[in-house]
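Coenzyme F420 hydrogenase/dehydrogenase, beta subunit C-terminal domain structure dump, as promised
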Amino acid sequence: MKVYAAYYNENTVRQQSSSGGIFSAIAISILKDNGVVYGVAMTKDCYSAEYIRVEKEDELKLLRGSKYLQAKVGDTYRDVEGDLKNGKMVLFSGTGCQINGLKKFLNVKYDNLVCVDVICHGVPSPNLWKQYALYQEKNREKLVAVDFRCKDTGWKSFGMKENEIYIPKEDSFYMQVFLKNYCLRPSCYKCKAKKEKYSDITIADFWGIDKILPEMFDDNGTSLVIVRTEKGESIWKKIEANLYAKEATYEEGVRNNVAEYSSAKKPKKRERFYVDLNNMNFNKFKKKYGASWGVRQKRKLKKFLQFFGGGIQSILYILRF
Ligand SMILES: Cc1cc2nc3c(=O)[nH]c(=O)nc-3n(C[C@H](O)[C@H](O)[C@H](O)COP(=O)(O)OP(=O)(O)OC[C@H]3O[C@@H](n4cnc5c(N)ncnc54)[C@H](O)[C@@H]3O)c2cc1C
Ligand code: SF4
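structure tokens r here:
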């Protein structure tokens, strides 16, 4: 196993990606070899996420970025099998459990299959996302684009972008219930994919990189890359020239990323959360589980201090003259 901190040297692609854009670097290399890429995109109506098959580089933008809800697999495993049997090079990307599911479905080892998983602390139910999206639309306009990991204010302080509206993660109901683990699928609290890993490469956020390898941090996104197999190693060698990368230890890579090896703890409120989702008016539901009063006040205070601090600095600056 080799571990790296890395980011893709194409800035636009990196900006559209949740971490350092390593998924795109791998996908482009597979497409250049006449291969196909399977990954997760939002549906056109923005109400769900689904697997799609991509053959052209300009379609990769649909796969870029994390979609924080469980994606529909549909007939994808059968389609992957068809491509593999036709001798196509196939990149399959997704959560660890989706990769394990594919490998068990295929039941045959294919040299032309490359699997890339994301470190995954869990997925919310598609029902929660749809109800949230419908609620947001009632209060605003039809959702035509969603970015769950918008980097407009930086990679570390990411927020959600719904159409053109940026919502800091602290103020986003959806991000809050996701990050507090209220809304994950039952399997995510006892995730078997933490121990059984069948992917060739694992990608994730390299949280803590600013302290571990500060020269790899610029707040535009740095990926953690874990190369697990020889096939993974040969892909890494192909893309390495297009990356900024530094080797790290496994311990450094996962120090701030427990989701690599342990499941999310199930909060006491988890069962009640879904009962309430199905029975409460969404507005009341949102108030019950959204950002706490304390968090909102802390944020307001921070904004106030930033403004006030800026004011003091300006006065001091003027007084100097
Ligand atoms: C549900 C979820 C939970 C995650 N949890 C963590 C975590 O706890 N810690 C961490 O470090 N990283 C986590 N990640 C991974 C991280 O957010 C980035 O996706 C990853 O680092 C890849 O980033 P990138 O910049 O290389 O490429 P990106 O372009 O951001 O990655 C896109 C890749 O994500 C896949 N993808 C997007 N949405 C889904 C989905 N719903 N289901 C399956 N695959 C999907 C696409 O198929 C593609 O392979 C999570 C991702 C998802 C989707
Ligand atoms: S936490 Fe585990 S079970 Fe849940 S989506 Fe991620 S890989 Fe699958």
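The domain at 2-119+187-260 is CATH 3.40.640 (Aspartate Aminotransferase; domain 2).
lmk if u need the other ones
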